[in-house]
Amino acid sequence: GAGVSQTPSNKVTEKGKYVELRCDPISGHTALYWYRQSLGQGPEFLIYFQGTGAADDSGLPNDRFFAVRPEGSVSTLKIQRTERGDSAVYLCASSLGLTGYEQYFGPGTRLTVT
Amino acid sequence: DQQVKQNSPSLSVQEGRISILNCDYTNSMFDYFLWYKKYPAEGPTFLISISSIKDKNEDGRFTVFLNKSAKHLSLHIVPSQPGDSAVYFCAASVRGGSEKLVFGKGTKLTVNP
Which of A99, A100, A103 has its CB closest to that of B101? Predict the structure, then answer.
């Protein structure tokens, strides 16, 4: 079946602009995660949704970052007033939402802030 | 403060030999450990996992060993194949909550033909 998809695959934006990154999880997966991977680092957790609600947003770096999942499926990560330090690959993952089920990752969106 | 550490940025082995990738963690609350494999321009792919109640889990050519007292785990690949060349990430989580993964920085494995 189809895996996790993310759009766009690449996004270049100017400092100060607003961006939206989209994630389509695997059908039937109730849990959805956003991670951010900077160059030379492992992925870092941003936010976790169980259904429509953000159950854990402890990884969001500041209030410029916000994510929604209004119908419990597709999620959008929104970044306001982008900064050059926001440049990274943003990864989305989904899982069945039960303990011990692995997270399946999408290919990521590479965000470059100039 | 890195809670999951992979101290070897790279590893090179000959085809057919054993690859051993190491990982250390500091948070004693972690009770579930995973290895992910990543090719360029792709997302991480789940490889193998181990619960803290076990000390070994095997899946084909891949075996993960967990030493809780040393807070250390390792991934063994036998025999190594050129297609195994990728970046390997160690990850840990606390089960029952969000199960968010805490990743190491990764080890780039190169298997030479």
Answer: A103
CB of A108 closer than 8 Å to CB of B40: no
DSSP states of B73-87: EEEEESS--GGG-EE
Q: Tell me if B55 sits within 8 A of B37, measured CB to CB.
A: no
CA dist., res. A7 & res. B31, Å (int): 33
Query: Any chain B CB within 8 A of the CB of A40?
Result: yes
Tokens of A102: 């692995």
Residue B87, both tokens: 């970046």
CA atoms within 13 A on the CB side of B51: 7
Between A and B, how many residue pairs show a Cβ–Cβ distance under 8 A? 59
pLDDT (tens digit, 0 to 9) for every residue of chain B, 113 residues total? 789 999 999 999 999 999 999 999 999 999 999 999 999 989 999 999 999 999 999 999 999 999 999 999 999 999 999 999 999 999 999 987 778 999 999 999 999 99
Angstrom distance (rounded) from CA B59 to CA B53:
17
